[in-house]
Amino acid sequence: MGVKDEVKYVEIVYRGIFQKRLAKYIAEGIVYTAREMGRPALSFGRYGDSPERNGVPAKYYVGIGNGVNEEDLIGYSTRVEPDLVDAIIVLDDTLLKGVESWAWQGVQPINLKLKNNGTMLVTSTKRINELLKMIPKKDFNWTLGVINTEPSFSGLWAFKDDLTMEKVWGGLAKLRPDIIDLDHLIKYVSKKQDANKRISAVKEAYSSVDYRSVMKGEGIDFVYNPPRLLTWQEMLEGTVIPAVPRGKRNELFKRGTTKFERPTVDFDTCIKCKLCWIYCPDECFDETPDGYYDIAYDYCVGCGICADVCPVKDCIVMVDESMFADYRRPYEMWKENKAKYKEWLKNVRQARKERVYVPGLGR
Amino acid sequence: MTEVKKLVEKEVLMNGTQAVAHAAMYADVDVVAAYPIRPYTEVMDTISKLIADGELDAEFIVAEGEHGQFETVKHASLAGARTLVGSSGVGWLYGMEAIVVTATDRAPVVAIIGNRALDDPGAYGVEHNDALMVRDVGWLLVWVDTAQEAFDTTLIAYRVAEDQRVLLPLGISMDGGFLTHSEQIVRLPPKELVKNFLPPYNRGKYLVHPDNPITVAPQVNEDWVMEIRRQHEEAMERARGVIVEAYEEFKKVFGRYPGSTNELQMPENPFVEPYMIDDAEVVLIGMGTVSKPMKVAIKNMRRQGYKVGMLRIRWFRPFPTQDVIKYLANSRVVCVVDRDYSMGSPNRGGVVYHEIRSSLYDLDQRPRVINFIGGLGGREITIQDVEKITKIGYEHRDTPITKPVYWVGVRGDPW
Ligand code: SF4
Ligand code: SF4
């Protein structure tokens, strides 16, 4: 029962604070274009998320009535999040590894809510096949599209009008004309300031979006086991939760999906000063028996403070998160084969991109 | 219909808080006091931008906390300024001393309460207990459930609160997240029409001004208090009539019923919104956005043969006792969904539940009343939940109630 095809939902996955306005404006454009097409539409954030916290994966939604009136659309959409979505827009390809938008739900696959035959659109400079190495498989066919562009960080206190919105809309219009079509999109964009350059960006994305059908079973394994939350009889009273024993971490509350950059450590130059261990706000460093400091990447939020405080030049360097497929610990890799680690370190650091300066990033 | 269309100047995508901010701009507020707390904050974000953009000329005062914020508007209001203020959750409670005296000093401050769970645990989601903290101290309280209604009700709020027969502060409650942060299309009327609807704020002989030397709130102790409370209660009662007038006038000026749009036909009762209630054996009751999944569920259930309807409580203070009686007297079972609770209350239920039970007590033939506590801290009440509530209600058409209160979807209780 329920929504069926009477409502189409678009999910926009973004990095909290850095892409908040971008996501909201993209949603707004889809709503207005759908209305140009004569359909009721609305948008809402996944309110339990923390879109105002640095880098936390967060979600925005658009609901479009497909034969239902506005009142029913609001009725269906008075939700924290829809059960299923027709299209997912991913604004930073490092989110593909999984999102933990808020505590106590575990890391969820990026395409958890995708409908059968749904569409996912990613902004990335990577090719489709490369992206599929990070995207979980589904037991149905779906479509993956790539808008060839760097992630745009247009956050809470600044909006970078770099036409990312127009590119995303253009790509969506190409892949899902049933959600928004090109004609009505252009009609909407024409009403904006500097309409001509915006229309060109829409058309350019429309004709250049790279996409293909992804077969059932194609992609990586990702078994999502939502954590079992305690009943009221099982919980401690008075909003009390027991401490995590010394040396352990909270298995239910990993924060690793928050980062789009991660620190890499050159253990050969480390002077064992312990500053990284002291300063890391998320206590990600573990002392090793030989006095080095290993990083639990699945808890690291990528704030960059360790890189800031490390007194040795280039001992800790922040590196683009998209260079990594997993959260394997660096010390383990180093111990296994130091020469190989050094070579690997060189490679990932070479590919390092200079990001736009975002206040609050710890740099 | 075409005539109505003319009365809409533009259609804009807005969330509930932005809708209120725009209405306050239309109402040409003079003083705004702000102190941030989610989810109400965006009202102030929007207002400050409207001021910065030159669209609104008002004093925008950032207070050092909620107490200062509410004191600021109270004093401004007594001196004749139209004011806007607001808060959420524990922020609203932190201002409580000032909030209480705003009512006793009869300052018609309009406040937005972005309903939010009371800490702990820290949660941003909707729960109605924050606003309900003022239910007994003489604030007018209204709940809105769409962005359009938020806009329209803000205009109505100034008209009702500032009426010289009333002069009471007024809280507009809206569900955190589901309305404060959900964007819907709002039909904005032409600005000039607002002048026809909303007269300038005039305190008359109660204005604090050098030309009108009066003192407000002297120390009076036991000699005056009972009488002051009695007057206050009369003003609350007079507000009923003023609210009806305001809705009538709104319809005349803007060509539509408050909260309705061109397409949506809303039943015309200011205090409650009845929905498919005429022949309903089971009636669902709720405040705020829970009415939205309720309506969809009711349509579904009606198709399956259930005679179910809804009564949304819009105005909570003054409480619409007569309307509740009128609409519920012929039903068999009433299912009250509370997005709040009253710990240790007579039936261990919610606040609205107890008000409804109390309203129905004097009827010879009373419907059975069941309570559902749900959606606390922003948890969803889904269409499926509402259907289940309806079925539980239906089962009790002919059987006495053994379990008066259900907790909807709480982990650990069967549901
Ligand atoms: S970037 Fe460094 S300091 Fe920040 S969370 Fe990760 S390990 Fe800790
Ligand atoms: S701060 Fe740098 S040098 Fe100091 S222990 Fe950490 S990695 Fe080694």
Automatic annotation (TrEMBL), chain A:
What are its cofactors? [4Fe-4S] cluster
Give GO terms: molecular function aspect only: 4 iron, 4 sulfur cluster binding; metal ion binding; pyruvate synthase activity
User: What sequence ranges are listed for the domain 4Fe-4S ferredoxin-type?
Assistant: 261-290, 291-321
What Enzyme Commission number does this protein have? 1.2.7.1
Q: Which Pfam families match?
A: Fer4_21 (PF14697)
Segments passing through the bilayer: none
Q: Which UniProt keywords apply?
A: 4Fe-4S, Electron transport, Iron, Iron-sulfur, Metal-binding, Oxidoreductase, Pyruvate, Repeat, Transport
The broad enzyme category this protein falls into is oxidoreductase
Q: Which NCBIfam families does the annotation name?
A: PorD_KorD
This chain's protein is named Pyruvate:ferredoxin oxidoreductase, gamma subunit
Protein species of origin: Saccharolobus shibatae (strain ATCC 51178 / DSM 5389 / JCM 8931 / NBRC 15437 / B12)
From TrEMBL, chain B:
**UniProtKB keywords:** Oxidoreductase, Pyruvate
Quaternary structure note: Heterotetramer of one alpha, one beta, one delta and one gamma chain.
A GO MF annotation of the entry reads: pyruvate synthase activity
Q: InterPro entries from the xrefs?
A: PFOR_II, Pyruvate:ferred/Flavod_OxRd, Pyrv_Fd/Flavodoxin_OxRdtase_N
The residue ranges of the Pyruvate:ferredoxin oxidoreductase core domain are 280-386
Stored PANTHER family: 2-OXOACID OXIDOREDUCTASE (FERREDOXIN), PYRUVATE-FLAVODOXIN OXIDOREDUCTASE-RELATED
Q: Where is the Pyruvate flavodoxin/ferredoxin oxidoreductase pyrimidine binding domain?
A: 22-246
Query: Main EC class of this protein?
Result: oxidoreductase
Q: Which domain of life is it from?
A: Archaea
EC number annotated for this UniProt entry: 1.2.7.1
CDD domains to which the protein is assigned, alphabetical: TPP_PYR_PFOR_IOR-alpha_like (cd07034)
What are the BP-aspect GO terms? response to oxidative stress
Tell me the protein's name. Answer: Pyruvate:ferredoxin oxidoreductase, alpha subunit
